[in-house]
């Protein structure tokens, strides 16, 4: 369908630090649970990951973000997650990054530690605990009765995990990634430190807001220390626990954003939920956009909006209304890897324009 040409900034480049990203339609990180769970290639991207990510680069996403990638064996959600802690993984990622970049997209990676939600089966096997290893957490409080009680991390172990994030960031750079996102959302380790539901610590990492944000900021510092000044670092946050004022709230997110910015985060990727099973999520089209918009307007920080953004006009309006600087698409890009090219066509953006240019092999289409 060809629509009336709308003026849209969706396909305008965005510059973060010294990196130009060709457009503002980005692929959200999405676990594929498809890596080897043991052996020589444990955690390494394989042919599935190659075709999956490269399709979205060919489809016109300005930035393709590799899924939550464990910074350590214990940091994976499932035994089939990607990981980035050894040379075999680094080499496999290098091949993937080369391919993503060769189609004009910027390659990003989300570095993650699954914390108390680790050691569970992939969704299509029920997400139950696999008991392959003991999950690590802020406090010995399980996510729910089906999850294992996590080991409460000591201060020294926390320093070790921050160092693992730094090591994975170094390897990400070596593999050619130009953007790294620290996963601070969805109830995984960093997110669980933020939420009073998961963090019951009585030391300097728990209790007050300042204490609960301490470890996520230390991880950002560790990553920033090894990540080049010229390249951006993103942080994904759960803007709310969706569980009332006793949990992490949108106000807390607005308070955290400038701290992240001061520690070197260039864009906040605003998601929500994941810390408690009793969350009451008010889901619907663009349901997380207001959280991103609040951060943008109250702090001036660059933000990404994500969550049920599925229509080209909807995405264009989010940017036109200045609610976010970029949009990230998840499931819609699973359904249609060529969504950005289709959106450009529907919005009347010339298909030959560089930000959504087709590969030469497809130029006649
Ligand atoms: C299959 C699948 C895997 C996901 N894996 C991740 C992940 O690795 N990291 C993350 O931060 N979010 C993950 N998410 C959440 C998405 O990034 C996105 O925030 C969410 O799906 C909402 O956006 P959507 O409505 O466009 O799908 C995943 C979602 C799906 C559907």
Could you report the average pLDDT, rounded to the nearest whole number?
95
Distance between the termini: 14 Å
CATH class assignment: Alpha Beta
Oligomeric organization of the protein chains: single chain
Give the number of helices: 11
Q: What is the strand content?
A: 15-25%
Which radius of gyration do the C-alpha atoms yield? 19 Å
Main sheet summary: 8 strands, parallel, barrel
The helix-strand sequence is EEEHEEHEEEHEHHHEHEHEHEHH
Helix amount? 25-40%
Bound molecules: flavin mononucleotide
CATH topology: TIM Barrel
Total discrete domains: 1
Total strand segments: 13
User: What CATH architecture would you give?
Assistant: Alpha-Beta Barrel
Global outline? globular
Strand order of the largest sheet: 3-4-6-9-10-11-12-13
Low-confidence stretches: none
Structural class: alpha/beta
Q: What is the H level of CATH, i.e. the homologous superfamily?
A: Aldolase class I
Question: Care to describe what's here?
Answer:
The protein has helices at residues 47-58, 87-102, 155-175, 189-194, 209-212, 214-226, 250-262, 289-299, 312-320, 331-335, 339-346, and strands at 14-16, 19-21, 25-27, 63-70, 82-83, 106-112, 136-137, 151-152, 179-184, 233-238, 267-271, 302-306, 326-329. The protein starts with 13 loop residues before the first strand and ends in a 19-residue tail after the last helix. The chain has one domain (5-362): Alpha-Beta Barrel (TIM Barrel). It has 11 helices and 13 strands. The strands form 3 sheets. The protein has an 8-stranded parallel β-barrel with strand order 3-4-6-9-10-11-12-13, surrounded by 7 helices. It has a two-stranded antiparallel sheet with strand order 1-2. Strands 7-8 form a two-stranded parallel sheet. The chain has 365 residues and is α/β, with parallel strands linked by helices. Flavin mononucleotide binds at residues 28-31, 67-68, 110, 183, 185-186, 236, 271, 306-309, 329-332.
């Amino acid at each position: 369908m060809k629509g009336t040409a709308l003026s849209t900034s969706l396909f305008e480049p965005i510059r973060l630090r010294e990196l130009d990203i060709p457009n503002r339609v980005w692929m959200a990180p999405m676990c594929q649970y498809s890596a080897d769970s043991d052996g020589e290639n444990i955690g390494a991207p394989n042919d599935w990951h190659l075709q999956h990510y490269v399709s979205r680069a060919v489809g016109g996403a300005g930035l393709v973000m590799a899924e939550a990638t464990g910074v350590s064996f214990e940091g994976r959600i499932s035994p089939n997650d990607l990981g980035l802690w050894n040379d075999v993984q680094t080499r496999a990622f290098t091949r993937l990054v080369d391919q993503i970049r060769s189609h004009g997209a910027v390659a990003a990676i989300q570095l993650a530690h699954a914390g108390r939600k680790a050691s569970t089966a992939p969704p299509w096997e029920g997400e139950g605990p696999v008991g392959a290893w003991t999950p690590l957490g802020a406090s010995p409080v399980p996510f729910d009765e089906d999850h294992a009680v996590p080991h409460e991390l000591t201060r020294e172990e926390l320093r070790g995990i921050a160092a693992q994030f730094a090591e994975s960031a170094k390897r990400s750079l070596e593999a050619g990634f130009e953007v790294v996102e620290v996963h601070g959302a969805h109830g995984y380790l960093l997110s669980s430190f933020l939420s009073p539901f998961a963090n019951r610590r009585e030391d300097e990492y728990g209790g007050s807001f300042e204490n609960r944000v301490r470890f996520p900021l230390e991880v950002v510092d560790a990553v920033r220390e090894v990540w080049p000044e010229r390249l951006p670092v993103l942080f994904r946050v759960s803007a709310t626990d969706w569980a009332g004022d006793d949990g992490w709230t949108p106000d807390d997110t607005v308070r955290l954003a400038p701290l992240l910015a001061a520690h070197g985060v260039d864009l906040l990727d605003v998601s929500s939920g994941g810390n408690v099973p009793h969350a009451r999520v008010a889901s619907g089209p663009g349901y997380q956009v207001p959280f991103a918009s609040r951060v943008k307007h109250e702090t001036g920080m660059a933000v990404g909006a994500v969550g049920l953004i599925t229509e080209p006009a909807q995405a264009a309006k989010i940017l036109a209304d200045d609610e976010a600087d970029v949009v990230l698409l998840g499931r819609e890009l699973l359904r249609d890897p060529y969504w950005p090219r289709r959106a450009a066509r529907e919005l009347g953006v010339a298909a030959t324009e560089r930000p959504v240019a087709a590969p030469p092999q497809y130029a006649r289409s």
